[in-house]
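To start, an entry.
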Amino acid sequence: MLYRIFRPAVPQSLQLKRNSVTYDSGLSPPQFGFGYSTRYKNPKDAWNSAFPKRVRVDIDQRQLQSLRLRETESGNRLTVDVDARRLDIAAAASEVEREWLARLLARRYSLPSVSGSAGAAQAGV
């Protein structure tokens, strides 16, 4: 735990390239507080939250086709499927910022509609 406390935080980043996007999940600072140990249903979830793995991947044009803005009970999520993994892009951003980023990526990489089924229904599509 000391290693995690003193390890510097690394911000999440997206680097836009000509035909791809480089994604780095970064490392958030550790979060401690009341109820931390009861927040997780099993020890594995608590361990994975305390020691998250940093993900760095190049997302090519074909993989960008899976970019979706998904509506959930707690707000929207911007996701992309890379191989067998679903990555949450801009998880720390606000809903408005994720919507802006989804539109920006769709325009830049000529992607089809990135709205999820709930977003499309609200837009009247």
Remarks:
- The mean pLDDT is 83.
- The first strand starts at residue 13 and ends at 16.
- Helices lie at 2-6, 43-50, 61-64, 95-108, 117-123.
- The chain has one domain: 2-123.
